[in-house]
Amino acid sequence: MSETLIHNIGQIVSGDFAAPLIQGDAILIRDGAIRAIGGGLRPGEGATIINAKGGIVTPGLIDSHAHPVFGDYSPRQKIVDFIASCVHGGVTRMISAGEAHLPGRPSGAIGAKSLAIAGAQAWGNFRPGGMKVQGGGLLLQAGLTEADFEEMATAGVKHLGEVGLGGYHDWDRIAEMTRWAKRCGMIVMMHIGGASIPGSDAIGAEQALKAQPHIASHLNGGPTAPPLADIKRIIAETEAALEIIQCGNAAIIPRILDLARQYDALNRVIIGTDMPSGTGVIPLGMLRTIAWVSALGDIPPEQAIAMATGTTAAIYNLPAGRIAPGLEADLVIMDAPIGSAASNALETLKIGDTPGLSGVLIDGELVVQKSANTPPARHPIELSQ
């Protein structure tokens, strides 16, 4: 049995949008899962003790929109180890929006199905830097049948990549395929906005209303944002999660959040990066987008963190994303960086800055003690036994 106690925590951020803060100054972890939260917790003999030194503890960030291929390598940007580098930005899990950048990616039904199965199974066996990647985001192609979806679901494919990404635009048939996917328990994400990769097209509210996805991807542009009228219709006329990304248009984020607030839909907002893309690879993309959402959109930072953790976890039915007993102990310890005008990590995000990470835990194991990417935390953690 392995045990870890994190104590002397300044604030615990739950990852739950409706109740984003938790009372207590300690978290007890046993065998990779959260066991208790509160005060006065005592670990067993031989436990690892982490003194958070007043830092904030949050759930591990979940990037709701990434484009991995195979291995920790980006063919789009010819960069290695980018996924492991994101762990140093507090990201403990990524969701593939489709392995779109695979060189020579097959375009037929058989190839698309095979790639999705291979991606789902390969990423189930590979965790760079400890990162958990849900791969195999199926990109729809002509010729797929309902039996194909059943086969893929049995083989471990859990979601569709960006519907509409690529050259297939038969929307009546696409709507039928999304219904098949939902019947098989798959989550459906959908490209919204301007064309991105060659062969793709501009997609807006009309197509979203027809396909009825679970997630309206990159409402702030991937890379080009749709008209505000389309965004308003998607918010008002669907129940889709509303995704904001790093590799998009920062200026439109406050307007999206104002519309979500108007329709009482802030609890549907999620956060991703959409990298690697033409914009590049941004290991601190999740932290930066959380800061944009909080500082530019006037969202309390603890709720912006929930958008990047628990809200996404709920959509995908993941046993993580919140700090609660029984869930996976994927956690981030953060503080104001040295030289910041803020006094803690939440204030840092609220003023639009990037906090300093002093610890990242995945399944209760400390995989990062000092981030290689963020500015140094004002109060580094201390370890003892």
Q: Given the helix and strand composition, which structural class is it?
A: alpha/beta
User: How many domains, as an integer?
Assistant: 2
Give the tally of β-strands.
21
Average pLDDT score = 96
Find the CATH superfamily of the largest domain. Metal-dependent hydrolases
Task: Show unreliable segments.
Answer: none
| Share of residues in strands | 15-25%
**What's the end-to-end separation, in Å?**
15 Å
CATH class descriptor of the largest domain: Alpha Beta
Q: Helical region count?
A: 11
**Assembly form of the protein:** single chain
CATH topology of the largest domain: TIM Barrel
Helix content: 25-40%
Across the major sheet, the strand order is 3-2-7-18-19-20
CATH architecture of the largest domain: Alpha-Beta Barrel
What does the largest sheet look like? 6 strands, mixed
What integer value in Å does the Rg equal? 20 Å
Shape: globular
Structural description of this entry:
With 385 residues, this protein is of the alpha/beta class. It has 2 domains: 3-58 and 322-384, Urease, subunit C, domain 1; 61-283, Metal-dependent hydrolases (TIM Barrel, Alpha-Beta Barrel). The chain has helices spanning 82-87, 109-124, 146-155, 171-183, 205-211, 228-237, 253-262, 285-297, 301-307, 310-316, 345-350, and strands at residues 3-7, 11-13, 21-22, 26-30, 33-38, 48-51, 56-59, 61-66, 73-74, 79-80, 91-96, 132-134, 159-163, 187-191, 215-217, 241-245, 269-272, 331-335, 356-362, 365-368, 382-384. α2 (109-124) runs parallel beside α3.
